[in-house]
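Fold it.
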Amino acid sequence: MQIVKVRYHMHGTDELSYREYSYFSEEPLSVGDEVVVPIRDGTGKAQVTVIDVPEEKIAAFRDKVKIIPTGSRVVQIAVEPKMHILDMDQVQKQWESGTAWLNKEKELTSISDIIAPQKNPDSLDQDNYAITPQQNPDVLAQAERAMSLMLVAEKAIIDSDEAVKAATNDLSLIAGIKKELTAQKETYLKPLKDSTAKINEAFKMYMGPVTRADELLRGKILAYRQKQEADRKERERINALKIEAARAEMAVNGELSEPVDLVEETPAPLQRYRSDIGTTSTMKVRKWRIVDFSQIPDEYKAVDAGKVTKLVKAGIGSIPGIEIYEEETLQVRGA
């Protein structure tokens, strides 16, 4: 059998484990193959990273190497988008020859000449319109128009007021097409967003009790440990006072009137607890809180850009340390 090395997908994501793990494979595999492999508690998804590993490399632990059975390769089905787009070389040739891409009898001098996009729905799978925009003839038609718009815009020369007026017509058409494409995109995204919101809401409700149970038990364990630690420190404090009092008495009288009665000290709380099915442990996590904002170095402070923008748009005259200026932009409105 072939010997390979794999890296596990971490927690069901595309992120791969740092370590590699050796397996026997009943069928030939290639680097990059996705496979389902046996692991300690069942199966998991992994990616093949090394193939044809020499057997001496696993001699020391050969009896522990698991086998990837035949049929474990994950088949990746690549769906090539059936997008009906323009041949840009042909568009360029038509432009240079002074003919329109939609109507050979009419010269294309402006985006305004692009009126009715061509559709070719015969080659598209209409069952997938609701899933893949690449197979929706309305979307593809707009895509064709967008490509032509870009070509016209690249060729445009704005050198007169008349040219600005013509470009204004074109920009109005562009605004309409952008609006239409955005609306078409939303028809695909909205059902997904709605479904995602409902799924998140449902699982938030399902996860609520278990999340609360997790918080309660963690909090109670930490509170118990804090109480243990506080008790230990209090016992140490009491004993320290008793020892200090005994030393003072010895300094005055040369002897103790009675033995020092120390309280029993308790050990520090355990750092790790093992049960039948799990382990809990503690660790120190560094955190921070602001105690005096004026003492924080400037390099750790950030400007609230959103708040500043609102003030500037509202007409505020000046803000110390900030330059307020005007920049010309272009507004386009349809007739």
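The longest helix spans residues 161-253.
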